[in-house]
Amino acid sequence: MGNLTTGLKKFMQNKNTVTVVGVILAIIVLYVAYTWRINKAVNPQVVPYAAEQINAGTQITESMIATREVPPSMISGDVLINKGDIIDKYAAADTVIPEGSLFYRRSVVEKEQLPANIILDYPKGHVLYNLSVSTESTYGNSVYPGNYIDIYLKAVNKIDESNPAALTADADKIMLGKLMSNIKVLAVKDSDGNPVFQNIDENRKPAMIVFAVPEEYYILLKKAEYMRTYDTSLNIVPTNESLKDEPADLEISSDQLKEWINLHTVMDQ
């Protein structure tokens, strides 16, 4: 054992030997690195591509995706190589993904990134309603998309001096009651139409909330909004419906308020 140790020391102390060994090791390292780079550049890689044309705003399903082998030189920049990064995402609003094209990160977005993503969220047969709000009326900007709200109607039952028969004990008294219940908020936007909660750092202030209601309810809300003679206003109140497994259905809460609105507006023909 001692002879072996002594021989090894002498071997390592020989500068020429050490130089030769170093050169050999450097050549081996260079060869391995070169071979790895050549294989990487030559061996094809399986990547997903569009099996059909995918229009802007379209949700990308698995059936729209196929795979093929391509040279690594084609996989550069922001090419997506995993199907999991594509399935159930959306084609960006400003692009069309042609049939046969690879998928690029700039062309595939989350639903929330679509400028008109709210049009994807409401039930068939409903129409979108845009209600003006403020930081105060949203309880200090505490109403989020996905929350549920009730809508209350405030109005003044004014005296109609041209109609003496209308002078009643209730004239000029304030009316306040719940008009609609269980409305799901789809979006909260600022005065420029930007989602309030998309970028917290910008401290955007709410100016409108968007939700969807049946057309009959839409007309009723619009009538209530336009009844300026009666100083009407629509006020929102958050509820805890979003915490329930099965939120209650949207409904008219007061037939009396509904009848009062229709009584003081022109009925549609």
Write out key terms for the chains shown.
4 helices, elongated, 269 residues, alpha+beta, two-stranded antiparallel ribbon
Biggest sheet, open or closed, and with what strands and sense?
Answer: 6 strands, antiparallel
Report the structural category. alpha+beta
Shape: elongated
Average per-residue pLDDT, rounded, comes to 82
Listing every helix as H and every strand as E from the N terminus to the C terminus, the arrangement reads HHEEEEEEEEHEEH
- The strand count comes to 10
Radius of gyration: 34 Å
Uncertain residue ranges: none
Measured as a percent range, the helix fraction is 10-25%
Range of strand content: 15-25%
Individual helix count: 4
- How far apart the termini lie comes to 110 Å
What does this structure look like?
It is a single chain. This protein has 269 residues and is an alpha+beta fold. It is built from four helices and ten strands, in the order H-H-E-E-E-E-E-E-E-E-H-E-E-H.
Task: Give the gist of this structure.
The chain contains 4 helices and 10 strands.
What's the SSE blueprint?
Layout: H1 2-13, H2 15-42, E1 45-50, E2 65-70, E3 90-91, E4 108-109, E5 126-132, E6 148-157, E7 173-189, E8 208-214, H3 215-226, E9 233-239, E10 251-252, H4 255-263
Antiparallel strand pairs: 1-2, 3-4, 5-8, 6-7, 6-9, 7-8, 7-10
